[in-house]
Amino acid sequence: MNKSRLMEAVALGGRDDDGNAPILRAKGKGITAEKIIEAAKEHGIPVQQDSALVELLGQLDLNEAIPEELFEAVAEVFAFIYKLDRKMGERKTDQP
Protein backbone atom coordinates (compact mmCIF):
# COMPACT_ATOMS: atom_id res chain seq x y z
CA MET A 1 0.00 0.00 0.00
CA ASN A 2 1.36 3.45 -0.91
CA LYS A 3 1.01 5.76 2.06
CA SER A 4 1.39 9.44 1.29
CA ARG A 5 3.75 11.29 3.59
CA LEU A 6 2.43 13.87 5.98
CA MET A 7 3.30 17.44 5.15
CA GLU A 8 6.20 18.70 7.26
CA ALA A 9 7.28 22.28 7.93
CA VAL A 10 9.87 24.16 9.94
CA ALA A 11 10.33 27.85 10.69
CA LEU A 12 13.69 29.52 11.25
CA GLY A 13 14.39 32.85 12.85
CA GLY A 14 16.60 34.85 15.12
CA ARG A 15 20.15 34.00 16.07
CA ASP A 16 21.83 31.95 18.78
CA ASP A 17 23.49 33.62 21.77
CA ASP A 18 26.70 34.06 19.77
CA GLY A 19 24.76 35.74 16.95
CA ASN A 20 25.99 33.18 14.44
CA ALA A 21 23.37 30.55 13.76
CA PRO A 22 19.65 30.79 13.00
CA ILE A 23 17.31 29.13 15.48
CA LEU A 24 14.61 26.52 14.82
CA ARG A 25 11.48 28.39 15.96
CA ALA A 26 8.72 25.96 14.93
CA LYS A 27 8.30 22.51 13.46
CA GLY A 28 5.41 20.20 12.79
CA LYS A 29 3.70 17.59 10.65
CA GLY A 30 0.24 17.38 9.17
CA ILE A 31 -2.15 20.04 10.45
CA THR A 32 0.63 21.69 12.48
CA ALA A 33 2.74 22.01 9.32
CA GLU A 34 -0.21 23.51 7.47
CA LYS A 35 -0.65 26.08 10.25
CA ILE A 36 3.06 26.99 10.18
CA ILE A 37 2.89 27.59 6.43
CA GLU A 38 -0.41 29.48 6.71
CA ALA A 39 1.01 31.74 9.44
CA ALA A 40 4.10 32.45 7.36
CA LYS A 41 2.00 33.44 4.34
CA GLU A 42 -0.30 35.61 6.48
CA HIS A 43 2.75 37.52 7.74
CA GLY A 44 4.32 37.86 4.30
CA ILE A 45 7.13 35.44 5.11
CA PRO A 46 8.34 33.59 2.02
CA VAL A 47 7.92 29.82 2.01
CA GLN A 48 10.37 27.53 0.26
CA GLN A 49 9.88 23.81 -0.27
CA ASP A 50 12.86 21.57 0.46
CA SER A 51 11.76 18.25 1.92
CA ALA A 52 15.32 16.99 2.54
CA LEU A 53 16.26 20.10 4.51
CA VAL A 54 12.97 20.06 6.44
CA GLU A 55 13.62 16.43 7.39
CA LEU A 56 17.07 17.33 8.75
CA LEU A 57 15.91 20.46 10.56
CA GLY A 58 12.93 18.57 11.97
CA GLN A 59 15.34 16.44 14.00
CA LEU A 60 16.40 19.51 16.01
CA ASP A 61 14.73 20.63 19.22
CA LEU A 62 12.74 23.86 19.22
CA ASN A 63 14.90 26.93 19.85
CA GLU A 64 18.02 24.93 18.98
CA ALA A 65 20.67 26.60 16.82
CA ILE A 66 21.16 25.24 13.32
CA PRO A 67 24.25 22.99 13.31
CA GLU A 68 27.25 24.11 11.33
CA GLU A 69 26.83 21.20 8.90
CA LEU A 70 23.56 22.76 7.69
CA PHE A 71 24.80 26.37 7.41
CA GLU A 72 25.29 26.19 3.64
CA ALA A 73 21.84 24.73 2.96
CA VAL A 74 20.16 27.23 5.28
CA ALA A 75 22.17 30.08 3.73
CA GLU A 76 20.71 29.12 0.35
CA VAL A 77 17.21 29.44 1.81
CA PHE A 78 18.00 32.87 3.25
CA ALA A 79 19.52 33.94 -0.10
CA PHE A 80 16.27 32.89 -1.79
CA ILE A 81 14.27 34.97 0.71
CA TYR A 82 16.58 37.97 0.27
CA LYS A 83 16.14 37.84 -3.51
CA LEU A 84 12.35 37.64 -3.14
CA ASP A 85 12.36 40.60 -0.75
CA ARG A 86 14.41 42.67 -3.22
CA LYS A 87 12.09 41.79 -6.10
CA MET A 88 9.02 42.66 -4.04
CA GLY A 89 10.62 45.96 -3.02
CA GLU A 90 11.38 46.79 -6.65
CA ARG A 91 7.80 46.03 -7.65
CA LYS A 92 6.45 48.33 -4.94
CA THR A 93 8.67 51.22 -6.05
CA ASP A 94 7.67 50.69 -9.69
CA GLN A 95 3.98 51.16 -8.90
CA PRO A 96 2.52 54.67 -9.26
TrEMBL record:
It holds the Pfam family Bac_export_2. InterPro entries: T3SS_substrate_exporter (IPR006135), T3SS_substrate_exporter_C (IPR029025). GO terms for biological process: protein secretion. GO terms for cellular component: plasma membrane. Gene3D superfamilies: secretion proteins EscU. This is Type III secretion system protein. The lineage of its organism: Bacteria, Bacillati, Bacillota, Bacilli, Bacillales.
